Amino acid sequence: GDGEVEHVHKIKVWDKNSALEKLAKHLGMFIERVEHSGSMSLNVLPEDAEL
């Protein structure tokens, strides 16, 4: 060679905000609530009911 030394550095980057958000959700610091609107009907029949 020509006497020059070349250095290569590898780095890993990631979305730190997303990582912190996932950690906080895992630890129960954030509670996600989903609200639904509309109507629904439900009929519950006992297993022993005679029709």
Descriptive report:
The chain is mostly helical and 51 residues long. It has one helix and no strands. The longest helix is centred in the middle third of the chain and has 11 residues. The mean pLDDT is 86. It comes from Rhizobium meliloti (Ensifer meliloti). This is Terminase small subunit.
Give the structural class.
Answer: mainly alpha
Q: Mind summarizing the main beta sheet?
A: none
The count of strands amounts to 0
Strand-residue proportion: under 5%
- Low-confidence residue ranges: none
Give the proportion of residues in helices.
10-25%
What is the succession of H and E elements?
A: H
Q: Using only CA atoms, what is the Rg?
A: 29 Å
Keywords summarizing the entry:
22% helix; rod-shaped; single chain
Quick structural gist:
This protein has 51 residues and is mostly helical. It has one helix at 16-26.
What order do the helices and strands come in, and which of them pair?
Blueprint: H1 16-26
